[in-house]
Structure formats: C-alpha cells, structure tokens
Amino acid sequence: MRENPSPKHGYPGRLFVFEGLDGSGKSTQAALLGKWLGASGYRVFRTEWNSSELVSSTIRRGKKKGLLTPTTFSLMHATDFADRFERTILPPLRAGYIVVCDRYSYTAFVRDAARGCDPDWVRMIYSFAPTPDVAFYFRVPVRVTLQRKIASRLKINYYEAGMDLGLSEDLHDSYERFQGRIKKEYDRIAVTDKMRVIDSTRAVEPIQAELRSAVRPILQGFPKGESLLHDG
Amino acid sequence: MTGRTYGTRLPGLPPGELSGKLVVIEGADGSGRSTEVELLKEWLEIEGHAVVDTGLRRSTLVSEEIDRAKQGHTLGATTMALLYAADFGDQLENKIVPALSAGSTVLADRYIYTLMARAIVRGASRDYARQMYGFAFVPDLVIFFDARPEILLHRSIGKYGSLDYWESGMDLCLSRDLFESFFLYQDRLAREFEWMAREYDFHTVDANRRPEEVHEVVRELVATLYAGKPPSRARRRITPRGPSASA
C-alpha cells in the first residue's frame, strides 16, 4: 500500500478538498462523491470542518464578552483545524485512504484575510497542512448563497456575517459585504493555489459528473479497499 | 514603547507608539520569576508608576480549554501550541495593549519565549514558533532568570512537594522516571532559551542567588528604562556577585 504515494504530499492516501462559500453546494457534492468512491470499492474517509466544541465554546464566551479579535479568532480556528488534522485527516491519509475534506486550510486563508489578518502569517500558521491532490472551489455569487440560506430557513450566524467587523448594522447587508470579501479572496487564491474552479450555479448532476471525471486520473492505479485487508 | 512587533502587525491596532512600558521576566519554573514580579511591582508603584502584571494562561478566553486539554492529554503538539498562541493573543490584545495604551508599565511573568521553547521541544521548528508569535510586541526589556537545574529541582519540590508532571515534560516521554525526565526536559528548554537569549536580546540574570540579591540587579536594569536611556551593552551580561556585595 505504500508503493503509490501522492506526489503532492507524499502520503499513500489521497486528499480531495472541497471549498466555497456557505451555501455553494460543496457539502452536497462532497457527500455524493464520497458515496460514489465508496461504492467503487475505495476506502473513503469524509470529514468536514465546522466548529467543534473546543472552538465553539470559546467563541461563544468570546462573543459574550466581546473578547475575540481577528488574531485570536484566527488562532482559535487554527487550533481547531490542527486538532482535526492531527486526529482525523493525517491518520487515514497515512493509512492509504481517500480523505474527502469539506473545507480545509483555504477556508482560513480567505476568512482571515477578509478579517484583516496578514495573509502570509495565516499561511505560515497553516504550513503543517500539506497541499491536497485536488482542491475544488465551488464558485457561486454571494446573492445565490443568501437566497439558498433564506429558502432553507437557515439562520445567519453573527461571525459568518462578519458582524464583529462593523461593516453594517443590518445582518443581511453585513453578510453580503463580508461574504463578498471572502468570495473575492477565493477568486484570487483559486488562481495562485491552482484550485479547480467549479461553476456551482448549475444543477447538482452535471457538477457531480464533472467531479467524477476530475478525480479519475488522480486515482489511476490507486489500490481499492479489499487489497488493504488481505494479502494476495 | 515603540509598538514594533517581531513580524506581522495586529489588525485593528492604531499605528505608532504606545505610551507604557513592557518588561518581561522569563525563566524556568522555580527560577524566582513570580517572586521578583511581586517585588518589582511593589517598588515601581512606590516610585509612582502604574503597574499591570500578567502571566501565561490567565486569560478568560481559552484557559478552560487548556485545563481540559491538559487533563485529557488528548491534543496533539501543533494543536496545543496553537491553543497557547490563541491564549497569548487574547492576553496581548485584551490586557497588555490596553494597559500600554493607558501608559502603564506591564510586568509580564513570562512571554512568548516560554511558549516558543515549549512548542519547539515538542516538535515545532524554531522558524514556525518564531513566526507564529510574530504578532507579539518587542518588549522594552526582557530579563532572563538563569538558574541551575539542581536549584530548580529543589525549589520545585519545595513549592509543590513533588515534581510537576508538565514542568517535568512527562508528556514528551523522555523517560518514565519523573526525576530523570525533569532534568532531560529542563536541559532541552535551556538549549532553546540559549539561542533566544541572543536572538531576542535577553538580559541574563544569575537567578541562583537569593531573591533580594536578584531584585537589586533587576531594579537597576528596570530603572534605566525610566531614566530615558536603554541599559548599556556592558550590562547585558550580569556576573554573579558574592553575598558580601549586597549585604
């Protein structure tokens, strides 16, 4: 199982990353791709980066007391990511799994930049996270994500709207502005980081078909699950 | 103080100087830091300066998470290093900066250097540690309390009645023997403090002596900050004085 390490990170597994704004459809697509890979006989491990108890309890407390700053906000998320990385991403990657990550370090690059943190500093903080085999960026206008949110009656979260930055008193207005900054940053790093841009204004099926053909070449010669369990 | 940082600048801070002064006392557990901070605070206040003292792991933001992590021993090295950095960032922005802006003297009982040393001996690269804390202000004065491991050992046992699990670096699995682990761990930390002393311009003080003697040396160093001139280069290395000199 070690004869086919990824040229990107050197581990025997494969790392597929899904990035984009909230409501861009990336989670739906990640779940579908994971399912297909599993059904195809690969060993798949799917993980998402949402706030864990570690970070959410701190953020709750910080918000109540007005303590969180862009720097501590960034470091708390980095702590959370490092914990997930060390516990849930690295072991399956080393064991030869396909790890499907719904959000990765790129999420921090764009969010922290939108909050005014020094981008070089943020990248350095996350330097422990290796480059994935492929990073999909689900590109979609902010308005579409807002409509999807409203349609599914999801509440807009204070920090997601960047309310701590004082961009606007109005939650929806602040959300649009802050997410607009994030999208601009995503658009920028999609080029510099060679992310694979997916037009996510389309229906689910054509997007999924595009993803499947995109990962096929990466999986050429990659061992399926059965061969990991037995010799011969 | 100049308001200069070691690297990146904190977002949201007004540029330029801060009117207060930042004095850092660094050193191992048992080197006499906390005793000295108390003495120094008392003296500075009598001299008419407003003083705010601060230490590590006293912030309200994440100290609970740190305590929980320590009890569970479940967090990895990078995670722990970042959690400490978040905690430090919280103290810097919510305690140190406001005090410096108000013109107070901040006495820091340890600063980024201890955090860096701990992260490095647990596997972080020196570069990573240095850059991670790039947002920290360059203090006006860093005084390093240098004490022999044997002395640290006796003071530690005197203080806790035994050796502390973390201060002996037991999580590093250097030795299953607490006593042996303590020396191995302190030795590794000392090696990190050695290069930092050069890199970050520490004023090293011989902390093997009595608190009163140490205090006299520290007072002299700190006094120069208020005289409007930096401590002279010649004073950088403090040579131990015999007990008779201070009597």
Describe this structure in words.
The complex is a heterodimer of chains A (232) and B (247). Chain A has 232 residues and is α/β, with parallel strands linked by helices. Chain A has a single domain (19-216), classed as Rossmann fold, CATH 3.40.50. Helices cover 51% and strands 12% of the residues of chain A. Chain A has nine helices and five strands, in the order E-H-E-H-H-E-H-H-E-H-H-E-H-H. Chain A has a five-stranded parallel sheet, sandwiched between helices. Chain A is globular, with a radius of gyration of 18 Å. Chain B has a domain at 21-148 and 198-240: P-loop containing nucleotide triphosphate hydrolases (Rossmann fold), CATH 3.40.50. The longest helix of chain B is centred in the middle third of the chain and has 25 residues, at 77-101. Chain B is globular. The two termini of chain B are 35 Å apart. With 247 residues, chain B is an alpha/beta fold. At the A-B interface, helix 2, helix 3 and helix 5 of A face helix 3 and helix 5 of B.
